[in-house]
Design brief:
Elements (H helix, E strand, L loop, with lengths): L46 H10 L4 E6 L4 E4 L1 H7 L3 H4 L12 H12 L7 E9 L5 E12 L5 E10 H17 L6 E5 L5 E4 L1 H7 L15 E3 L1 H14 L6 E9 L2 E15 L8 E10 L1 H27 L5 H13 L5 E7 L15 E6 L9 E2 L14 H8 L3 E4 L5 H10 L8 E9 L2 E10 L8 H26 L1
Helix pairs in contact: 8-9, 9-12
């Protein structure tokens, strides 16, 4: 593949194939005139000067031969690659001995001049000699130049160094592979922050087709996270690529509904290689979906933190002389990062065995966290009056079922959520609840209730497991406190 398949005008893009004139005299070439043709008047801006300027401005090296194999054209890119100037090259018979080794000249010239009698263009690779004696492997494309009568009058050759062509081909192949077979999302975003090109992986991640996403604002594709993403794209346009990938959490709108995803993203500022000054064309955005890995990482971190809290709570509770105080210590350590409020209720009249199901369950408040300002849990008074829990209250059901139970106000208005909490004898800002039964020595001692406000998510199954671990420790402390009271 040649950087330029045939000489073209940079200004108008028209092909120069078939134009049989020489380069400018300033480039060391001459115009051949017939014996009976008068010398035309020169005004300093004839067609040969324009053609010479166009040929010298080409990105590809170009040389041309007449029908006898004499060099007629030699542009500046050819001089840059081989070192031979136009004055030294134009007029030479063939390439033997100066641009090609004598041993290879017959084969090389034969292949080049054969293009005069072959249709289309031919591509060859061979080594040329530089002026300083070195060798350069080039890829050359040759085609016939025809005269006014349509007969072959010579051949022109456009060539460049093979490694330059290989780099170009690799760049093109990489671009095509990124937009076809890449296992990560690739999106080209224009300066208006709208997708201009999207590969198949990115289209699937966005929940749409490759063409339907083009030109649409990112806000139409993402329900959440669009502000962070657009801010990152604007930063790249203004400042350049960040030094490391960024993790962006977004919510994608799909036909199946909204999905929360984490994309590890890299950004590249794209600039035009043809402009004298860097002109931003947009941003190249590459991303991978790392949602599962991030969730696993977060879960592992949460488990480590909770295990540390249980360990620290056990050490602190072991220093408490009063077992009831030890129960509140476990409660305080459990609240960190887990809930906003906590309550401990004990079964009135003593612990229940699994066979004791007579009469309704009544619960007495043992300890609670302050409902106003944050602070440590406090033991309740010793009056022993039952809490006014209605029938079917989550704490009562927890004792009856001997298992954890979750409850939530849902997405109701704030005033209704306040009434929901107050009706259950909980702090007014409680929205989500988790009750875990207190069991010790095969008996049910009571229930511990954890409460979350509207700023937190609802309790999940993993939260219930942690609450049960805390309940085991609280139950052991309360059981020891009951034994001390009996003594």
């Amino acid at each position: 593949m040649i950087a330029s398949s045939e000489p073209t005008c940079r200004t108008c893009g028209r092909s120069l194939q078939g134009v049989q004139v020489s380069a400018s005299r300033r480039s060391g070439t001459t115009d051949e005139l017939g014996p009976d043709e008068p010398e035309p008047e020169r005004d300093g801006s004839d067609g040969s000067d324009l053609l010479a300027a166009l040929l010298d401005g080409m990105d590809a090296a170009l040389c041309a031969f007449d029908a006898d194999g004499v060099v007629t054209h030699w542009n500046r890119e050819a001089e840059r690659i081989l070192g031979w100037s136009a004055d030294e090259a134009v007029g030479r018979q063939g390439l033997a001995g100066w641009a090609v080794r004598s041993a290879d000249a017959e084969e090389v010239e034969g292949r080049l001049l054969s293009a005069m009698h072959a249709p289309g263009r031919q591509v060859h690779e061979f080594a040329l000699l530089t002026k300083d004696g070195g060798r350069v492997l080039v890829r050359m494309q040759s085609a016939a130049v025809r005269g006014p009568d349509g007969k072959p009058a010579g051949v022109y050759c456009a060539f460049s160094e093979v490694h330059v062509q290989i780099d170009l081909e690799r760049s093109i192949a990489l671009s095509e592979a990124l937009f076809e077979d890449a296992s990560w999302g690739v999106v080209l975003v224009d300066v208006d922050l709208r997708p201009a090109v999207v590969n198949a992986h990115a289209a699937r991640a966005l929940g749409t087709g490759r063409t339907s996403v083009l030109g649409r604002p990112l806000g139409e594709l993402l329900a959440q996270g669009v502000e962070e993403l657009e801010s990152a794209l604007q930063h790249v346009l203004a400042e350049g690529a960040p030094p490391a990938p960024a993790e962006v959490w977004v919510t994608v709108r799909t036909p199946e509904g909204e999905r929360r995803r984490c994309w590890r993203s890299g950004f590249l500022r794209l600039a035009s290689p043809l402009a004298e000054e860097p002109v931003p064309l947009g941003v190249g955005w590459l991303f991978q979906d790392v949602t599962e890995a991030k969730q696993s990482e977060q879960e592992a971190s949460l488990l480590r933190f909770r295990a540390q809290q249980l360990h620290r709570a056990s050490r602190a509770a072991a220093e408490c002389e009063d077992p009831a105080e030890a129960a509140t210590v476990h409660l305080d350590f459990a609240l960190a990062g887990f809930a906003d409020h906590a309550l401990i209720d004990r079964v009135a009249g003593g612990a229940l065995t699994d066979t004791q199901n007579e009469g309704p369950v009544r619960l007495v408040r043992v300890a609670a966290t302050p409902s106003g300002a944050p602070g440590p849990s406090k033991l309740a008074d010793r009056a022993g009056l039952p809490v006014r829990y209605a029938e079917g209250h989550p704490a009562v059901q927890c004792v009856e079922r001997v298992g954890a139970l979750r409850a939530s106000a849902g997405t109701i208005p704030p005033e209704q959520a306040r009434e929901w909490a107050l009706a259950r004898q909980w702090p007014p800002d409680a929205v989500h609840a988790l009750c875990a039964v207190l069991r010790s020595r095969g008996r049910t001692l009571g229930v511990v209730t954890f409460l979350r406000g509207a700023g937190r998510s609802a309790f999940e199954r993993s939260d219930a497991m942690y609450a049960e671990d805390v309940a085991v420790r609280v139950a052991a402390a309360l059981d020891l406190a009951g034994m001390s009271d009996e003594e």
